[in-house]
């Protein structure tokens, strides 16, 4: 028994280690950015007046306005006295009333049921079914948590532990480039990251031959049990077509891999010919044997989309065809961690105002504004979805040499120069892994700085 | 490595098991209560018109009003447009502005730093030092989380794992009666519960001789490493004196036990001669060798006190003299789980309005009203703090016999009868453990039903 506990401890030691080393390259940049901020506040003259940080998928920190409807409903729930004035639109007041009615004593201050407020989870599952054109969604398969990253960590943890009989350690296939936190949580669980490269030449497409190659490469080293996909992508903003998803599902089925579909950017699709189709929907369309055997976990979050409420800490995972053991464990992992307001936010995200509602016109306008982007001919693959661009930068050999001398990766060197000269903080591609010899930068496109950021 | 993961899994299996069996006695009552509610809504005639649930420490679910100051500040943070009107008091607007200033982009929608917003943790630590009359509090020892129960589980988990070399399994001393969730989390970690009985005859006092007896009783069975105390108590509403705390600290020092001090009811003290003194303060007053060796973890939460914001999910633990390994691990356990609003609520709890502030008069009035209680001569030990009474019920042998026939504990039987006859739902003492042959009930005193509840 104590050994069990020791083990938990060692897992956390690993997390500790990984969190600390996670962003060494970025850390140097962030340190310098802090210094620059200080210098600016002390009146040091620079070619810019303020520092602009476009590294993170954190729209509000970049000054993107939160959705009025969302904030009004939450404020009314926090302070119901607001509802007595008619300043708030009728649908806001009605929604707040409905949500509060699901809390004991009508207050967000009461403990919610350990697994979440049942009526909210039911509505979430109805909304998932609507998104997927009627493919049913069982509320018992929907698990809320303080963020999708937490759901992903917990799901991977349980999958890893079910693999304990295997002679090799668990492997999980991960795209390159990939959202950093995912890599750190997976490695921290002791699982091996099996990288597959997205094809920059094909708009960062996910290619099955590459999955095949990655799987082969893992042979003997680890036992791959799951395939992690991000659609729409981060940091590369591609959106998978239905056909591409079908291919991935067939591959997962053939190789008996659990599909971990990170679909947190599902509401951020703006490519002219792109459309978000969920893995769940495509799976259902494919029919048996796929639809009743392929194991799928789909993640979503209030942190992303045009809602962007990262600070509320709310997300969920929907599990399809998963081992009942995993489902059972997960249902007990999240007890009492997700705040009532995060649960309300999930409800608002999944049941936004509809045409005809008083809040609809403003909601729709803000949503369109947040999703509208202007990319002035950036030399980068077209961005179809997500919140980031990941353009390639071609650096002269002298720059690469100089970077080496300063003990930096060439793209970190590029970012450091950009920071010094323009006050704009972006992230180097090496943070997300990239093909050897290629260099990239990543930044959030929800800003007005694209002309500065064009690699020059 | 896979074995490590397996182990995490088995821990969760245990949690699963314990959560499911946790409240068998209470479950029967809750089921019947749901039926009664249904019957009432269908028009079935009963001697009461509605069901009243006074089981839980959830003031808002009992209709206790939230603190206006707290809700106004949070609403203003959620929807800053509210600040442009002068309807909100100046100190509310100022506080909201200060809090939002600590968020990237001035929005609660941004990711907070993984370990929490540094300025808030600094202010929390200053407030702890103030509470303790100047005993310093290092912000690096204060760890926020989604609730104190989470902090307690995580701390116990780490302590348990540090005991891995010992030949016997870890034991933790736990008061009887005790808050249920604590027992389930400790047992779920694979640690043994070593019960010590609070002395009902002495106002549910904690007696060192009893700690001694409990420790002796554990010999050979497990290796006790920690002592859990709840002060002020739950379900028994006693408040420890400084002298009693000194004795406990001396005992912990002598036996090398880590002190786990659950102080979530620190703001709920209303006995005429009672005063809350923190373990941390007494420890500091005692000086070396105690003050620099006794390991102490103190828990607090926005769920309790007169704030009662259980749904926000915010709490913290302060660690004193703890093994640096434990401190290190804990600092990485909570990453990204505590919402920004829960962090704001911690700030508001620990820095309430002060005399002279516009919000002070109302704040003070509501606080007094929440803490004012009327106990009409209940045949129970005087209640000095906490939110509950735990009166003893003397049941006639026929009732005990009848209970046996129906397969219930005698106090569950009592509660079931009370529910049928009055529509009032309370919890049987067997849920909290009690001395054999004694029976108790527990209910929240923040309600107006004490006359019904008087055991008859
Ligand atoms: C692909 C992806 N998944 C998950 C997350 C984390 O989301 P959450 O805030 O729900 O934990 C992010 C955040 O940037 C992300 O980019
Ligand atoms: C003694 C005690 N500690 C802790 C808690 C749990 O508090 P939290 O909501 O912070 O997890 C409770 C809740 O009833 C309690 O009574």
Automatic annotation (TrEMBL), chains A, B:
Keyword set, alphabetical order: Aminotransferase, Pyridoxal phosphate, Signal, Transferase
EC number(s) on file: 2.6.1.2
Pathway: Amino-acid degradation; L-alanine degradation via transaminase pathway; pyruvate from L-alanine: step 1/1
Swiss-Prot/TrEMBL cofactor(s): pyridoxal 5'-phosphate
Keyword Signal among UniProt keywords: yes
Catalysed reaction equations from the record: L-alanine + 2-oxoglutarate = pyruvate + L-glutamate
Subunit structure as annotated in this protein's UniProt entry: Homodimer.
Family recorded in the similarity comment: Belongs to the class-I pyridoxal-phosphate-dependent aminotransferase family. Alanine aminotransferase subfamily.
Protein's name in the database: alanine transaminase
């Amino acid at each position: 028994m104590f050994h069990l506990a020791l083990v938990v401890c060692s897992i956390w030691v690993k997390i500790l280690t990984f969190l600390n080393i996670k962003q060494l390259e970025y850390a140097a940049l962030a340190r310098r950015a802090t210094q620059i901020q200080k210098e600016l506040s002390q009146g040091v003259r620079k070619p810019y007046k303020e520092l602009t940080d476009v590294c993170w998928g954190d729209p509000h920190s970049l000054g993107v306005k939160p959705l009025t409807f969302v904030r009004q409903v939450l404020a009314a729930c926090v302070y119901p006295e607001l509802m007595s004035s008619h300043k708030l639109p009728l649908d806001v007041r009605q929604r707040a009333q409905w949500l509060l009615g699901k809390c004991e004593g009508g207050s967000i201050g009461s403990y919610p049921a350990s697994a979440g407020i049942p009526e909210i989870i039911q509505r979430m599952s109805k909304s998932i079914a609507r998104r997927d054109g009627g493919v049913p969604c069982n509320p018992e398969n929907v698990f809320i948590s303080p963020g999708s990253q937490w759901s992903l960590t917990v799901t991977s943890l349980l999958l890893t532990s079910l693999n304990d009989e295997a002679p090799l350690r668990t492997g999980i296939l991960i795209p390159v480039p990939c959202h950093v936190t995912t890599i750190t949580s997976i490695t921290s669980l002791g699982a091996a990251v099996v990288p597959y490269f997205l094809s920059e030449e094909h708009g960062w497409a996910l290619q099955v031959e590459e999955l095949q190659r990655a799987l082969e490469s893992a042979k003997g080293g680890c036992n791959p049990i799951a395939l992690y996909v991000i659609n729409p992508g981060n940091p590369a903003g591609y959106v998978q077509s239905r056909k591409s998803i079908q291919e991935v599902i067939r591959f997962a089925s053939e190789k008996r891999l659990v599909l971990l579909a990170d679909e947190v950017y599902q509401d951020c699709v703006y490519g002219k010919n792109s459309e978000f189709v969920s893995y769940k929907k495509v799976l259902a369309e494919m029919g048996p044997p796929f639809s009743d055997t392929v194991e799928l976990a789909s993640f979503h979050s209030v942190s992303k989309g045009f809602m962007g409420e990262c600070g509320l800490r709310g997300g969920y995972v929907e599990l399809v065809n998963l081992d009942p053991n995993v489902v059972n464990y997960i249902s007990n992992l999240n007890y009492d961690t997700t705040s009532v307001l995060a649960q309300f936010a999930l409800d608002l995200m999944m049941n936004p105002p509809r045409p005809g509602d008083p809040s609809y016109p403003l909601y729709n306008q803000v949503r369109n504004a947040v999703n509208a982007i202007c990319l002035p001919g950036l030399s980068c693959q077209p961005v179809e979805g997500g919140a980031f661009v990941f353009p390639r930068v071609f650096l002269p050999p002298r720059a690469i040499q100089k970077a080496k001398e300063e003990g930096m990766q060439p793209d970190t060197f590029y970012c450091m120069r950009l920071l010094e000269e323009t006050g704009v903080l972006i992230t180097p591609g090496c943070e997300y892994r990239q093909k050897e010899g290629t260099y990239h930068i990543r930044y959030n496109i929800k800003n007005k700085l694209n002309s500065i950021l064009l690699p020059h």
